C-alpha cells in the first residue's frame, strides 16, 4: 500500500442480524438460524441468515416455507430491531476509538480513513486490531477491505467472508475485477446490467474500456461514475457529516399474495404515499422526484421515476404522480411488492416554487392575503403575523423510513 495515497477501510459486519442473535443466545452458535418476518404470511421471507444456514442452501429473500423444506432444522427468529440498533451503536463507538474519520453507511457497515494512522503503524496491523477488538469485545464477526478509495475498499470487504481481510490496490483491478460480469460490480443492479448488456458490455473490463460518451447516453451521470469505478477510480471522501444528509424518503410493502386487482393496487399505493408524506412532514422535507418500485410474482423488478420542477410533500401530490407512473408502466403481471419513494429531498424552507403558466393563478389568489399581512406587520411589527406554524422536526417513528436509516440518528449530536 503506497503511503502517499489515501488508505481507507470498509468494515462490514458479517450476517449481522443473525450474529447478534447468536451473541444474545449462545446456544444458537454453530446452528443454522434465519431472521424472517411472520412465517404465517407470505411476508415471511428470509431477511438474513447465519453462515451455517447458507452452507445448507438458505438465501436472503427466500420464502420461509421453502427454507424450512430445504433445512427442517432451521431456527427461524423474528427480527429484534432495538437489539440490532444497540449492537450497531456499540460497533461504531468502537470504531471511533481509532479515528473520527468514520462514515457509517448502514446499520452494519462503514468506512474509516486511516491514512494518518499508518504513519506509525501498517494498515494491515490496524485492520487486524479492529477485527480482533470487534470479535473479542462484541463477539461479532466482520470482514474488512483495505484500499486507496471507497469503491475498492467496499469491493475488497466482499471478497472474504466471514472474518476476512483483503487488500485491493488500483493496480490489481485489471487482474482481479475485469474478468467479472458487470452484475458482480458494486453499484450495478439488474436493470443497469441489462442496459449495459444491450451495449454489448458484459464484463467489468468491457465497462472499463467502453466509450464513456456511449455509456453516458444510456445511463447518464451514473454511467460516467460506473466507468470510473471500473477503472478503479473513486475520489469520494470519507465524510463523517454524511449522516446528516437525507437523500430520499420511501416506504414499501410486500403484499400478502400476488395481486393483479387494480383497485387493491391503487389503495396500496395511496397508503404508501400517505406514509411517505407523513415522514417528509416529520422531517420537514420535500422532494422533486417521485419513484415507484414494482416487483412481480417472478421477482422481476421495475423502478420508474418522474422529476418535476416544484417539490412535493403532500400525500395527494405524491399519490397523483405515483399512481400515474404505476398505470403507465405496469404490464398487468401479478404484483408481489410495491414501493413509493420521494428523492432529491431538501429542507422545506429551502424549496422554491417555480411559477409557470399553469400555476401562477394560485399565487395571484394569495396576493390579497400577502397585502393584508404586510399591512398588519406595519402596525404590529415584523413577524407578528405568520402564515403557518413551523412544526419542529419529529423524533418519533414517523420521521424514520427504515431501520437502515433510523440507525443514523444514533450518530447525530
Automatic annotation (TrEMBL):
Domain UmuC, residue spans: 8-189
Cofactor note: Binds 2 magnesium ions per subunit.
Feature type site, description Substrate discrimination: 17
Enzyme class: transferase
One cellular component (GO) term of this entry: cytosol
InterPro entries: DNA/RNA_pol_sf, DNA_pol_Y-fam_lit_finger_sf, DNA_pol_Y-fam_little_finger, DNA_polymerase-Y, DNApol_IV, PolY_HhH_motif, Rev_trsase/Diguanyl_cyclase, UmuC
Broad class of the protein's primary localization: cytoplasm
Binding sites annotated in the UniProt record for Mg(2+): 12, 108
Active site residues according to the UniProt entry: 109
Pfam families, sorted: IMS, IMS_C, IMS_HHH
Catalytic activity: DNA(n) + a 2'-deoxyribonucleoside 5'-triphosphate = DNA(n+1) + diphosphate
Enzyme Commission number, as recorded: 2.7.7.7
Entry keyword annotation includes Cytoplasm: yes
Compartments (UniProt record): Cytoplasm
NCBIfam families the UniProt entry points to: PRK01810.1, PRK02406.1
Known role: Poorly processive, error-prone DNA polymerase involved in untargeted mutagenesis. Copies undamaged DNA at stalled replication forks, which arise in vivo from mismatched or misaligned primer ends. These misaligned primers can be extended by PolIV. Exhibits no 3'-5' exonuclease (proofreading) activity. May be involved in translesional synthesis, in conjunction with the beta clamp from PolIII.
Subunit description: Monomer.
HAMAP family: DNApol_IV
Protein name: DNA polymerase IV
